[in-house]
Specification:
Shape: elongated
Strand order of the largest sheet: 2-3-1-4
Strand content: 5-15%
Distance between the termini: 34 Å
Radius of gyration: 25 Å
Helix content: 40-55%
Largest sheet: 4 strands, parallel
Structural class: alpha/beta
Number of helices: 13
Length: 259
């Protein structure tokens, strides 16, 4: 079990209560590994979307059986509240249930929650471990973006100062099958946009859009060979007319050859 799973599951000790309320605006609880861990502990999770529907299922499958001393579908039930105010829940639920607050703000307190929420839940586990090891103080928005770029995507835009370094990082990123979330791509574009050598490049789109990046690489590759007297034809591929793909890439640079 990972540190991330343990951190969340530790909020749900078995046999402590039958009804739980999980306030989870970021859907942390819906991770497959977390749900599996909860089931192993005897919990079932039900979304609270409609009060009438939830009460009918709760009463029929759980409460009446528990009250009669029987064995219900699970030892404990978690009311999963994604949207809405916990104070709007029925009074008897609030009186009976044990409440747990789950959110990126609670689980990743060193990082800016507004930024973390934009990077996708698939990165939360890795980000939690990085925060535990490397975040020594609370980080504002810009520092959080730098932190995520460095520890999740292995990119430091402040260290990119020439075209070969830019294309090397783009090649590494997209050849891993990744693209940056827009919030991080825009941050990279902002940092590099202050350097004249990158003027005019659609940096944000290059980091976030694999489709655009591949079109740029392909167009530059054809030009690279044409400039060296090697001709060829693009079978079934019309020549790109988008001016955003007309950028030269230093394929001969050692950094690019080693990617």
């Amino acid at each position: 079990m990972t540190q991330w799973s343990e951190r969340i599951l530790d909020n749900f000790p078995p046999d402590l209560a039958r009804l739980w309320i999980a306030v989870d605006p970021d859907d942390v609880l819906l991770d497959a590994q977390i749900l599996s861990g909860l089931r192993e502990r005897g919990f079932e999770v039900l979304p609270f979307e409609d009060s009438v529907v939830f009460r009918a299922e709760y009463e029929e499958r759980f409460r009446t059986i528990w009250d009669a001393g029987g064995k219900a579908a699970a030892r404990s039930l978690v009311l999963h509240l994604q949207n809405g105010n916990v104070d709007d829940l029925p009074w008897d639920y609030l009186r009976q249930a044990r409440r747990v607050n789950l959110s990126v703000a609670e689980l990743l307190p060193r990082l800016s929650p507004g930024v973390v929420r934009q990077i996708g839940p698939e990165h939360l586990e890795q980000l939690f471990e990085a925060q535990s090891r490397h975040a020594t103080q609370d980080l504002a928005d810009s520092a959080t973006k730098d932190f995520i770029l460095m520890h999740i995507f292995r990119i430091s835009p402040h260290l990119i100062s020439e075209p070969a370094e830019l294309w090397r990082e783009l090649l590494r990123l997209h050849y891993r099958g990744e693209g940056l979330p827009v919030v991080l791509a825009n941050h990279v574009a902002h940092v590099l946009g202050e350097k004249s050598v990158f003027y005019g490049l659609p940096i944000g789109e290059l980091f976030s859009s694999r489709n655009l990046f591949l079109r740029v690489i392909q167009a530059a590759w054809y030009r690279y060979f044409e400039q060296r007297g090697v001709s060829g034809s693009r079978i079934g591929e019309p020549e790109a007319s988008d001016e955003r793909v007309a950028w030269e890439i230093p394929f001969e640079h050692p950094d690019l050859r080693s990617v």
